[in-house]
Amino acid sequence: MQQVDETLGIKYEQKDIHNDTILLLRYNCPDASCDIACWGWPDLHRHVKGAHHKVMCDLCTRNKKVFTHEHELFTIPELKKHEKFGDDNPGAVDQSGFKGHPECGFCRQRFYGDDELYAHCRDKHERCHLCDRRNSGRQQQYYVDYNSLEQHFRKDHFMCADEECLEK
């Protein structure tokens, strides 16, 4: 007997495989002793906070490609450590290499990974094209806004004070 899930676009050969898949895709509580399934992320976050007095990392729940029940639960101090240092525990067997969620030095906002931080800096902050050219783009230096980039130009590069040059 073949089972079809039109929402997911999946055909199942057996009913028990279909049921197991549905169980995996629910918003199951990550606490091993809890068998609650919630209606969505907001509901699950409320449940974890109310029932277990813990929290889930919002950046991980939005970006990490794991099943809902595979996310970690944290106390507030554990979450801060997770965000800042990751699971770095030298010598531990379960080392994943996760070094924490990088933080924008200007906004103090954390991002899931380096790619998201780079996209943020590229979109929200300024770069010096002269320094980029000199360093062949290896070490990109960002400035919080155009005014700080202009100060950098005045301090580290020759900035022509002619009105026509300033307009460029």
**Helix and strand run:** EEHEEHHHHEHEHH
* Oligomeric status: single chain
The share of residues in helices is: 40-55%
| Rough outline | elongated
Task: Give the low-pLDDT segments.
Answer: none
Report the β-strand fraction as a percent range: 5-15%
How are the strands of the biggest sheet laid out side by side? 1-2
Main sheet properties: 2 strands, antiparallel
Span from first to last CA?
70 Å
Mean pLDDT: 89
Rg estimate, integer Å: 24 Å
Total beta strands: 6
Tally of helical segments: 8
Structural class: mainly alpha
Topology:
Layout: E1 3-5, E2 10-12, H1 15-25, E3 27-28, E4 37-38, H2 41-52, H3 58-63, H4 76-85, H5 114-124, E5 126-127, H6 129-134, E6 142-143, H7 146-156, H8 163-167
Antiparallel strand pairs: 1-2, 3-4, 5-6
Kindly describe this structure.
With 168 residues, this protein is mainly alpha-helical. 43% of the residues lie in helices and 8% in strands. The protein has eight helices and six strands. The strands form three sheets. A two-stranded antiparallel sheet has the order 1-2. Strands 3-4 form a two-stranded antiparallel ribbon. A hairpin with an 8-residue loop joins β3 and β4. The longest helix is centred in the first third of the chain and has 12 residues, at 41-52. The radius of gyration is 24 Å and the shape is elongated. The model has no long low-confidence stretch (mean pLDDT 89).
